[in-house]
Amino acid sequence: MSDVTVIGAGLAGCEAAWQLAQRGLHVNLYEMRPLRQTPAHVSDQFAELVCSNSLGATRLDRALGLLKEEMRRLGSLIIACADGCALPAGGALAVDREGFARAVTEAISAHPRIAVRREEVQSIPAGLTILATGPLTSHALAEQIGHFAGQAQLYFYDALAPIVTLESIAMPPAWRQSRYDRDSGQSEGDYINCPLDRAQYEAFVAAVREAERIELRAFETDPEAERFFEGCLPIEVLAGRSVDALAFGPMRPVGLRDPRTGRRPYAAVQLRQDDQAGALFNIVGFQTNIKWPEQRRILQTIPGLEAAEFVRLGQMHRNTFINSPQLLRPTLQARGREDLFFAGQITGTEGYVGSAAGGLWAGLNAARLARGLAPLALPNTTMMGALFAYITQADPRYFQPMKSNFGLLPELESHVRNKGERYLAYADRALQVQGQFMAEHGVERTEIVSSH
Fold it and tell me: What is the pTM of this model?
């Protein structure tokens, strides 16, 4: 007998199962490997890290450092195992990849309240369930999620445009205006525009053409992926077709007037608001497979973005995810079915730590629901709460996955000019709010309850 079903034994699924079991629930944890392997995994271990072996920064003035500390204070299995397998990596938490997966696998397998089931789940179970199947969800289960969510709300490929902080955009030369002044009734336009003259534009195109690119993995170059990328072309592919392709595509200046000259620029880069607070803006139509250091260098040649602070750089890759703003509450419960939770990268939380954070919160909330308590939404002044608020409250028309960053947090009551000190102030506030929230709702770090 089990109280909860968890599907997927990656970072999110293992964290969810651990949180449930530590709170007295009996868990069936399903993992299809090694019965059915994914194109990216190479072992049958849980929580296998398929890309980098780094879980990001450790300092509290870094978004991932704060996120990890919030998780430590909630008793995260993933962070505890990572801390125990840490390798020298300066200011980052890098781990022995095999040792980390082994530590998580042993902890999960040895827990008396977790029953591991090595089999593929092809439909969404009835009863209290957490879906944490990750970016490579099997075809059969993805079809069932599509039926539940509506096929139009399920995506199989990311086309991520870079995102910058508003405060790092120089205005002028950038200015606010919607094309032909068609805004939403506000005194300013909805878009920020960065103008380029002909020489600047041609230099930009040349840099894009020459930039070093990321090579797609084999499972991202199948016919389905090719059709997707043809309908959502990277800027380097457009630039390679003709020198003016970008000027007639995402950089078209039609309907715009540079207030400094009163004339239309030769080309323009448009940025669109990406969060409710208006602190983050994405570069419209700038999906790309240019390597990240090259992206940063090239994008900072655009007038107005010379000092841009990037909270996400462009990327295109295979990644199954749902339109969380349409489908999830900030508690990570599915709208319309309160006993179904989603966690991890399938919700649109990017990266190892963000994925595990979703598993932690879904597990904690599922345990509360099982005990007749209301699931909780974390305050958005914490990094976890801000991340979950973003993925569940962003504009569903433009939703794309997001990693943790300080741009998601509400502004401080008083502005701190120095960026490092400001980020530490964000962290101090977040940890204080988290502590108060945990005390108010009786959420303990290790809420171990005797077996049923």
Answer: 0.73
